Amino acid sequence: MIRKIIRIDEEKCNGCGLCAEACHEGAIEIIDGKAKLTRESFCDGFGDCLPNCPTGAITFEEREAPEYDEAAVKKAKEEKKMSAMKSEHHEGGCPGSKMMSFDKKETENAPVYTGKPVSRLGQWPCQIKLVPTQAPFFDRAKLLIAADCTAYAYANLHEEFMRGKNTIIGCPKLDAVDYSEKLTEIIKNNEIKSVTIVRMEVPCCGGLQRAAELALKNSGKFIPWQVVTISRDGRILDD
Questions:
Q1: Which of 24, 53, 99, 207 is least buried, going by the fewest C-beta atoms within 10 A?
Q2: pTM, whole model, 2 decimals?
Q3: Identical topology for domains 2-68 and 94-237
Q4: pLDDT tens digits for 155-179?
Q5: Phi and psi (nearest 5°) for 157?
Q6: What is each CA distance from 25 to 28, 36, 57, 66, 186, in whole angstroms?
Q7: Residues 94, 191, 27, 62: what is their CA dihedral angle, to the nearest 10 degrees?
Q8: CATH C-level class of 94-237
C-alpha cells in the first residue's frame, strides 16, 4: 500500500540515537553508527522521531510500504518487557540470579571507617551476563562497570567506587563475550545518571572499556563518564 512513512538520510545522520529513543514503536535502530528504519510495519507515520533529530536527517515520504501493524508492535513491546524480567530465573531458573535491590540508605552516607567494612553492593545480580537490561535499581542510577579483578587488586573499591552506585562486573577474557550490546541496552533502557568504568591495567581489560565506550556511543545518550585504571599491585594509575 502507498502510505506516509519516515525516510532517514544516512549522510546527514550522526548516529546520536535520539530518534530511536523517541520512537515508541521500536521501528528505528542504530546500526553501525547510523539510524535505520529496520521495521517498516512498526512505523505509524506520526513522526515522533522528527523533532528529536538534530541534523534534520529524518523526513516524511509517501511510498509503497507495509501497513502499520499495531498488534505486532504491542507484541514486541511485551516481549521486550518479559525479556527484562527474565533475570528472575536465568537459564534454567537458578535462584541465585533472582533480581534483588538492596536498601543502602542507612549506610550510603556513613563515614568511610565505621569500625568494620560495609558492603556497598546495591543490587543482585551484579554479573553483566546475568543482570536484566531494564530494572528498577537502574532508574537514575550512577552506574559502575568494573572488571572482576579490581575488587581484589584495589582494597578500598567498595568505599571509593561502589558507594552510592549500582555495580555490574565482568571479565571479557573469561566470559569470552562482547558486552557492548548488553551494556547499550542497559544504558538506553534506563535513566542512567553517570558511568564509571574501573579496569585493570592488563590488555585484556581493554575489552571491557571498549565495550562500555561503544555502549555509551550507541545508546544515543549524553552521559558523564570516566575510566579509572588499577595497577596489578593495587594502585590507581594516572591517565
A1: 24
A2: 0.58
A3: no
A4: 999 999 999 999 999 998 888 888 9
A5: -60, -40
A6: 8, 14, 19, 15, 18
A7: 170
A8: alpha beta
> How is the chain split into domains, by residue range?
2-68, 94-237
| Distant-in-sequence contacts of 28-34, Cβ < 8 A, 24+ apart | 30/218, 30/220, 33/217, 33/218, 34/8, 34/10
Share of the chain above pLDDT 70, in %: 86
Residues whose CB falls within 8 Å of the CB of residue 97, separated by 6 or more in sequence, listed in order: 87, 88, 89, 90, 91, 125, 130
Q: In a 3-state reduction of DSSP, which class is residue 42?
A: helix
**pLDDT of 91 strictly over 60:** no
Out of 3.40.50.11270, 3.30.70.20, 3.30.450.20, 3.40.710.10, select the CATH number for domain 2-68. Answer: 3.30.70.20
The separation between the first and the last C-alpha atoms of the chain, rounded to the nearest angstrom, is 57
**27: CB partners within 8 A, 6+ apart:** 6, 37, 38, 39, 40, 42, 43
Q: Among 51, 31, 54, 39, which residue's Cα sits nearest to residue 5? A: 39
